[in-house]
Write a structure and sequence with these properties.
Blueprint (H helix, E strand, L loop, with lengths): L1 E2 L5 E5 L10 E5 L1 E2 L8 E7 L3 H18 L3 E7 L2 H9 L5 E4 L1 H5 L8 E6 L6 E2 L1 E6 L14 E4 L5 H14 L4 E5 L4 H6 L6 E6 L3 H9 L5 E5 H5 L5 E6 L3 E2 L1 E5 L5 H12 L6 H4 L7 E3 L2 H20 L2
Parallel strand pairs: 5-6, 5-7, 11-13, 11-14, 12-13
Antiparallel strand pairs: 1-4, 2-3, 2-6, 7-17, 8-17, 8-18, 9-16, 10-14, 10-15
Helix pairs in contact: 1-8, 4-10
Length: 310
């Protein structure tokens, strides 16, 4: 193992072939290049919780690695920058995550999504921006100088899709983003007249609560969930439908190995631990043409957003 102070991420390694099934967890300043020897298949995920990541991905990483005759290894990057570093250094082969996580890493990474991963039994979804039913905000243009409560800056449904709608409506818009430590700080946050502010609350319920109590002027969420709030809210914009999760491969990953993993994933059923353990998925299938079209349409906006809020 090579230790380096220039790179900080969490590494969870799973050498299941010929070893104990237990994972060895490293939490340190680690350079992964020592493992990039052609004998491992690396799945990477954005998550500061290495324990949760190794638990979720253990079964499916074994399926993927077995398909290509390698040992599985899981890389849990604590932030987007670490994801970019790993991918640009060719230290990751496979990503199973949201659409924004794939394209917002960095335009230079060019990870290619080929399959749709049915997260929690859902194939696809849309994101939306909503306000209280009595709000004076009627359209996207009315959000200038206002604050929007959202879950997380790497969330596809609560940030990327809603922000893309705003950016599409006004290409010159600026975004002010901050994860507030307290309600008082969130209320005090100033947003310029030519900007839209995003308050990252850490969960959907808090986002709705902050809109309800007036801390934020609007909130975001998965549209199906927002509609369940009924007459209390009014949706002012809804995004195109995109896959819930995708399976994406690195540009340098061999096509022959990619096809083997795709075939192995396509055989998985809802009762397979590989799917149940990772986001309670029900199936993985080759991406439909309409989903590919939706992703391609959103891709330029996602890449621009990634740069704007970096």
């Amino acid at each position: 193992m090579i230790v380096s102070k220039s790179i900080s991420w969490y590494l969870a390694s799973a050498f299941s072939s010929g070893f104990s099934s237990a994972f060895v967890t490293f939490s340190a300043f680690i350079s992964f290049s020592a493992f990039a020897d052609g004998t491992t298949l690396t799945i990477i995920k954005h998550d500061p919780d290495v324990g949760a990541t190794q638990k979720k991905l253990k079964s499916i990483s074994e399926v993927a690695a077995t398909a290509v005759g390698k040992k599985p290894l899981i890389l849990a990057a604590e932030d987007t920058q670490k994801l970019v570093q790993a991918i640009q250094k060719k230290e990751a082969d496979l990503l199973i995550d949201s659409v924004f996580s794939v394209f917002a890493l960095d335009p230079k990474t060019h990870f290619a999504p080929t399959m749709t991963y049915w997260k929690k039994g859902k194939e696809a979804y849309s994101g939306c921006i909503f306000v209280k039913s009595d709000s004076s905000i009627k359209s996207l243009k009315d959000l200038a100088g206002k604050k929007i409560a959202a879950d997380d800056r790497v969330s596809t449904s609560t940030f990327a899709l809603p922000a893309a709608l705003i950016l599409q409506d006004n290409p010159k818009v600026k975004f002010a983003t901050s994860k507030m430590k307290s309600l008082a700080e969130a209320k005090a946050m100033a947003v310029a007249a030519d900007s839209v502010g995003f308050l990252f609350t850490g969960d959907d319920e808090t986002a709705v609560a902050w809109m309800t109590n007036g801390t934020a002027d609007a909130a975001t969420g998965i549209c199906d969930d927002a509609k369940k709030l009924g007459a209390k809210v009014r949706i002012i914009a809804e995004s195109p439908i995109v896959p819930r999760y995708v399976v994406a491969f690195a540009p340098y990953f061999p096509e022959s190995d990619r096809k083997k993993i795709e075939a192995a994933f396509a055989k998985l059923t809802a009762d397979s631990p590989a799917l149940k353990d990772y986001e309670k998925a029900s199936k993985v299938e080759m991406m439909k043409p309409e989903h590919k079209a939706a992703i391609e349409k959103m891709k330029p906006l996602f890449e621009k957003l990634a740069v704007m809020v970096k």
